[in-house]
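User: Please predict the structure of the protein below. I'd like the answer in C-alpha cell form so I can feed it into my own downstream comparison script.

Assistant: Understood. Taking the following sequence of 488 residues as input:
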Amino acid sequence: MKNPFSLTLDMQRQAWEGAAEMTEKLGVTPDRTETLENVEVGQTPSETVYEENKLHLKHYEARTEEQHDVPILIVYALINKPYILDLQPDRSVVRTLLEAGFDVYLIDWGEPSALDRSLTLDDYVTRYIDNCVDVVRERSGQDSINVLGYCMGGTMASMYAALFPEKVRNLGLMAAGLCFTGEGGVLELWGAEEHYDPERVTDTFGNVPADFLDVGFALMDPVANNVTKYVRFYDNMDDEEFVENFARMERWLAEGIDVAGATYDQFIGDIYQENKLVENELYLDGKHVDLENIDMPVLQIVAEYDHLIPPEASKPFNDAIPSADTEILEFATGHIGMSVSSRSHAELWPEVCEWFEERSQVNVAAEPETPDSDDEADAALAEDVEGDENGPEDLEAGSTVESDGENESDRELEPDVDPDSNATDVGQVEGDDLTELSGIGSAYAQSLHEAGIGTFEDLATADPAELAVETDISPSLLEDWIEQASER
C-alpha cells in the first residue's frame, strides 16, 4: 500500500503542475485569440475573369514560365467557400496544380439571395457551368478543357460532362457523390425518402440555411466535432502553427453558404433518394444526362475514411460509363483531409497532377520539311522538272496546254471551290457549318468532315451506328445531331 503522505504529496504536485500549465496557457491566450480572428486564407493571387449573378470565375496567377496546353477548371461545391482548396500556401490544391504547370480556373458560386430560391441544377449545370467552360475555352484557345469537380461540384461536373462531352477533355471527380444504392453512409440514410422530405425544409426557409446544414454535418460525429477538437486545441495552445491551422479550418467551417431551395429539393430527391444519375434516368433542362456520353478519361479521387461521401458512393460510377480510360486514386484520409493534409499534398496530389499532365498535351501536326537553302530548293526543282534537253518533247507528248497557258496537271492541284460556298479546311469542297447544331464543337465537326459528313443533308441521312464506328463518337450523340439536322 502506498504511503498516504506520499499520495497526498503527489496529488499536491499534480495540482501545482496543472495550475502552472493553466497559467502558461492563459499567458498566450491573447495572442492565440488574435490568431483565431485574423488568420489568412486563400492567399494565391487571382483575378475575376467572368461574373454572372453571384458567380465569380477566378483565374489564378501562373507559377511556372510555361503551362500545359489544356487548362483546368475547378467546379466547387455549392456549400461552404472554395478557399478550402487554397487554405494556406503549403496546403493548397490550387497552388499544387499551378506549380505543376497548369493554367487554373475556379468557380466561386457566391451565396444565393432570396431571389435565387428558384435556381435549379438545370441553371447551375447547363447555364452557369457551361458559360464558365466557354470562357475558359475561348481564353485558352482549346476546344475542350480539363474539369475537376469537388464534392457536390463533382456531381454537377459529371452531369455537365454527360451533356457537353465535346467540351470536356478530361474529367476529375474529387469526393463526388454519384451513386446512392444503400452504401452512401449516414447522410444517405438520413436523407432517405422514408425519413426525410426536403420540401418541408425549403417551404420553411426558402433557401436552406448554412447553419441548418452545419448541424447535420456536426451530428454525424458529435463527440469529435463538439468535444475532442476543443480538447486538442487546449492541449496545443502553445503551438502557434497548430493554432493557425485550427483557426483556418474553424473559419472555413463557420463561413457556410446557403443553398438555393429548388436546387436542394432537386439534389436530394433526384440524386440521393432516386439515384437518377447513376441509373441514367436524370434530365436537366429537358435533356437526358446520358452517361453513355462520358467517354473521355475519368479520374476519381476518393478518401478512404470519408464519412460524408464514402468511397462506395463514388467508385461504382466508373462501371456505369463507357470510358475506356478510368482510374481511381483512393487515399487514406477524410473528406477534408484530401485537400488540406500535408501527406495528401506530398503523396496524392503529385499523382493527380501526373494523370492530368499525361492527358493535357495537344499534338501539333509537324510542319512539312523545307530545303535548308536556295541551292537545295533549286536542286529539288531540277529533279522534278526535266532539263532543256528533253523538257519540250515531254511536254508535247504527255500534257495538254490550255489556252490560258496552264498545264492540266497543275489545275488538278487547285480545288474547284465556289467562292460563295461554306468551304471547310478539312478536305470538304463545300458544306454547312455543322457547329450550328447544338452539341457540335469544332473538334466534332472536324471528325464528321473527315468521315465525309459536310452538310446537314449528309448528316440527316447518315446511319448513326456506322458513323459511330468511323468517328469514334457516341451513337447517342450522333442520333441527337441527326435529328437536329433532319429538322433543318
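That's the full C-alpha cell string. The radius of gyration is 31 Å.
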